[in-house]
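Notes from hallway chat w/ T.B., transcribed later so I don't forget. T.B. wanted the structure written out for a chain they're using in a teaching module, and asked if we could keep both sequence and structure tokens in one place. Agreed to drop them here.
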Amino acid sequence: MGKADDKLIVNLREAGLAGRLAEHCWRLLAKQEGVAIRPLVALCIGSDRYTGDALGPLVGSYLEERGVCTVYGSLDHPVHAGNLVETVGIINARHPHPLIVAVDACLGRASEIGNIEAWNGGIEAGIAVGNRLPCVGHVSIVGVVNAGGHLGYLDLQNTPLAVVVKLSRAIGEALADVLGRMAARDAAAVVSRISAGTGGPTSGRG
């Protein structure tokens, strides 16, 4: 495991990586302005057309099943290069000042395959395959699915499914944990305000 500033890097070979990833994501989200009232949105980028690119949709479907936050990007409704800009516009229209957790697959060096990286800031999706897309997300998580070269989409297409599934499960478990805890914390805060007779607006989650 390695850290640089607010970036965490863990690998599938490490024991308890989902727990460490969840704790780091908790700290990253806690640093965001207005975290208690901003709607949390998971933006899971990718497509099931290429094995390596299915990481995001797999994570999105995992989070949808657990109902911990609003999700854009799943196996049934993927968010990819062709509709990313439109989807970001929809998110901003539907959710006032959203707090977006972006998830994507990436290519790296052979020694980095199986790494998961998380940091404060956005993802520039599509770089590995030559697409120029807008930087998205306030907190970002990527999984290194394969070694990158000049082949681009072929590198993603030739990625072993086992690596992608293991990465998606680790990321999905970590996000479900931290987002579920945040939702529970917000609910407890609302109950506390009501009990104290102060009322006030409820959380903007959704």
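Follow-up for T.B.: The helical segments are 17-30, 55-66, 84-94, 153-157, 161-195. Might be a good example for the class.
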